[in-house]
Amino acid sequence: MELESSIDTDRFSAALRARVIDVKSRRLLITNFHGSKQEQDLTEPPNCNGFGRVRHFCLAGNSGWPQNPLPIEPARRALHMRSLDQLRAQVFQISACNWRCWYCFVDRTLLSANLKHASLLAPSELVDLYLQEASRPQVIDLTGGQPDLAPEWILWMMQELKFRGLENDTYIWSDDNLSIDYFWHFLTDKDREVICKYKNYGKVCCFKGFDAVSFAFNSSALPECFCQAKTDPFDDRKCTHLRGLAGTLTTEKRPI
Ligand code: SF4
After folding, report:
1. Of 30, 136, 194, 246, most Cβ neighbours within 10 A?
2. pLDDT in tens, 176-191
3. pLDDT higher for 63 or 5?
4. pTM to 2 decimals?
């Protein structure tokens, strides 16, 4: 198979970020599943007027695979639930991703900030939609796409849930493909402190390969992006980014 690994992650991420977030009005471009290919894969119809879906996380893996306790275990503990084999989560998807993994279950029209399948919504509108659901899950999964194109999304959702008095009854789960360091660039120290101190939050990060070749094969990003070290030009944190391998590592012991 001919490999086409050509994504310039920095440039593509910047272009997508400009489309998925309006910082001034605090809105994010959220996928609407109605009429999409992904809708055909769903076991339950979309909810939240098409902007949400329910995902069932299962502890049991496929035959020969280990159990997958994420996010079941951290969410269960945070919410003081009994042991669970399966967990329902309310999913919202940001409508863009800066990589194109061959195995992605999200169709590409829902990864490219396509306005035919997405609308700019404020976290308050997402929470309104969530609260309208009669049998709403307690876990809210903020995914994509690549949610960290707009790390403000996580912060704003936390602030909104707190404002509604829901921070103890819900658990926020998000994911990250380890491609960018926007968490350090676009959030302030104070923002990061809010995230750090938020009790009911967990995040999962995924590895896209074990070397440059497998990484490029899986993500379609340029292979040199697999292990790319750079110094943060914006502050003295001396971040080292090993994209695709380990995300963001800081060389100093500083609380985030
Ligand atoms: S990083 Fe995730 S959302 Fe993006 S293409 Fe890969 S699997 Fe899909």
Report:
1. 30
2. 999 999 999 999 999 9
3. 63
4. 0.90
| CA triple 182-187-192, angle to 5 deg | 110
Q: How far is the CA of 144 from the centre of ligand 1 (A)?
A: 8
- Structure confidence by residue, pLDDT tens digits, 33-42: 999 999 999 9
Give nearest CA residue, ligand 1 atom 3: 145
B/e letters for 152-177, b = 16+ CB within 10 Å, e = fewer, are bbbbbbbbbbeeeebbeebbbbbbbb
Atom of ligand 1 nearest to the CA of 179: 1
Q: In sequence order, which residues have a C-beta less than 8 Å from that of residue 18 and are 6 or more positions away?
A: none
Kindly list the domain boundaries of the chain, sorted by start residue: 9-223
Which of 12, 94, 100, 175 is the best mutation target for the ligand 1 pocket, counting ligand atoms within 8 Å of the beta carbon and taking the most? 100
